[in-house]
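Run: sequence + adenosine-5'-triphosphate -> complex structure.
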Amino acid sequence: MEEKECHWGACVWVPDPEAVWVSAQLLQNYRPGDQHIPIQLTDGRMEYPVLPPAGLPPLGNPDILEGENDLTALTFLHEPAVLHNLRVRFLDYSSIYTYCGIVLVALNPYEQLPIYGEEVIDAYSGQDMADMEPHIFSVAEETYRTMIRSIEKNQSIIISGESGSGKTVSAKFTMRYFAVVGGAAQQTSVEEKVLASNPIMEAIGNAKTTRNDNSSRFGKYIEIGFGCKGDIIGANMRTYLLEKSRVVFQAAQERNYHIFYQLCASRDLPELRTLKLDSAENFHYTNQGQDVHIFGTDDVVELERTRNAFTILGVQPDQQMEIFHILAAILHLGNVNIQASGRGGDRSYIDVQANDRSLAIFAKLLGVEGAQMAQWLCHRRLAVGGEMLVKPMTGQQANEARDALAKHVYEQLFTWTVQRLNSSLRTHREQPKSFIGVLDIYGFETFDRNSFEQFCINYANEKLQQQFNRYVFQLEQEEYLREELPWNRIEFSDNQPCIALIEGQLGLLDLLDEECRMPKGSNENWARKLYDQHLNHSPHFLKPRMSNSAFIVVHFADMVQYECDGFLDKNRDTVFEEPINILRASQSELVAELFQKESAGGSLPNSSLANGSIRSGKRAHREHKLTVGFQVTCNALSNQQVVKILSLYTPQSDLEERVTLNFIRIVQVSAKGQPPQLLMDVRRVFPVMFPYLPPPQVSAAQLEIPESLKISFLRRV
Ligand SMILES: Nc1ncnc2c1ncn2[C@@H]1O[C@H](COP(=O)(O)OP(=O)(O)OP(=O)(O)O)[C@@H](O)[C@H]1O
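>> structure
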């Protein structure tokens, strides 16, 4: 802001320890260089605050701009102005949507609003974005119309925000919009199929976390293909980085993937009895969170929805049963009782004689031999001096191998299901003339305990943020140039240094891969190397005072502490080959198909980032594996997978495939089970939404919201 004289009575914003910002009036003319200025707060109190180094406190906007539907129309665009405007729109106008130039900012209302019906779709259809109130449908309409106007100009909508902020809900609204506007002329049910893919993907890829009861644990990019008349003629989905550790472990209050609970809850249905399921409380893989229910969700009804959706997509009931067999088998595998034996517990065994019931059911459901599986769950083959030896595994190793197998089977099934859905969504009539892509990537997240999964998710978000910064910033400046407006180069905080810390040479991933290649590599050694390399060198890397096995990354959205424990194993992500060979020879067609195409030691066909590497004999020790982290980095370099999507949109990109971007940024107004904290939440993601605005000026200690304000948010209808 240019420092100039400002007069008595002018409205300014001053930091407040409780309300974040409060408005006040100047009681004296301001002259550049003044250190203090008397002000009067709206409650009548007088103060004489020290002025910030930049001069005056942020100036208030004229009353006439109160509740403006585009933030860029505000005379003064700074943090208090943004917060105040979003608050006024939310509380006084009941509007959760606001434009910020080309970006739609959405607040998650955490309540059903009557603004998504067909009549609203009709109202937005064919209208110009500038003539309509901000809405997710206005972005969808703009995207659709631009695509129709300049056919073959592909479009994409990027939806970003923290976990639980409402990305998936918004993605579904956009897809519904396209299904309605692009479906009328069609006889086919393509649009119905596109919508039906949602419940299936949610059943197998979403789970309850402490942040969100229906959290997507994978990234999704769906491309909806349109014909020359603007009608939907097909779709294709790509998925990224499924959180497969959830299959075998859940933190307190969290759940495994919904589909497991749907099946357990429906176990008494006659056709599901062969699955030999029990209550979810009785399976190790579904009960670690100690709360198998979701308030307000009936898992029996949900399974019904999942099955209907499968049917709409052409997956026949017998094939659905094959899928359910595999899912149930995973639960039984988790209950297989592996016991330590031998001197010092250096061996393990599964008591097949005493009939480990879980193993028997697992084997039967997957069409394999129980005794064979028991043998290869407790032993591994090793190549020593040109000979193959069989080495027993300790109880712990065998349990880990069992979990690795469970995760691998689930991942293969997930990948297969996506391919299966894609084949139903593919058009056979004609090639799409253009497409609209919707990117619903897992949101930035931080929990009490953060591990490798959060690290990968937050890294992907860091990349997405960079694309966002650069794209929005560049567009803004291009517009100034086009309109020949005078402008100074606006500095925005680029997050490249943080990305370099993660993916650069000797960065966190590089060192992790190096440690994974060491015969005696350990999480502790890796942590030490990180401290040596980055502590006091990168401003984005910190060490927690009380721990030698954790590190902190200062991300664009938040500081996150990661526990090193488990990083090496998760990054290596190895599965032993012998149990896979048994599955490959399964009598079940689907099971055999799932494992048929993968080659030992290589990556899986069409797999997501979280693909596993299969370990067999000697190669397992010598070869550099395609670790998960390494793949993320590779992708960053070779424009594949997650980062391919992001890179595709780089304006400077010389890739031929160019698309126009449409951004939707979502802010979580209240976290699950907590009172709404509008200002707090908007504030936390402030640099995320408005990277080109000045950074916040008040300290974290001043961010508490007063009780009175929380109640007024709660009362909003
Ligand atoms: N527009 C909306 N209207 C009403 N409720 C909403 C809206 N958007 C989100 N919600 C609520 O917020 C919850 C979380 O939303 P959603 O699952 O879309 O979050 P997300 O950003 O996709 O989270 P994650 O990254 O964890 O997958 C929803 O289950 C719903 O209750």
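>> summary
The CA atoms of residues 126 and 141 lie 7 Å apart. The radius of gyration is 28 Å.
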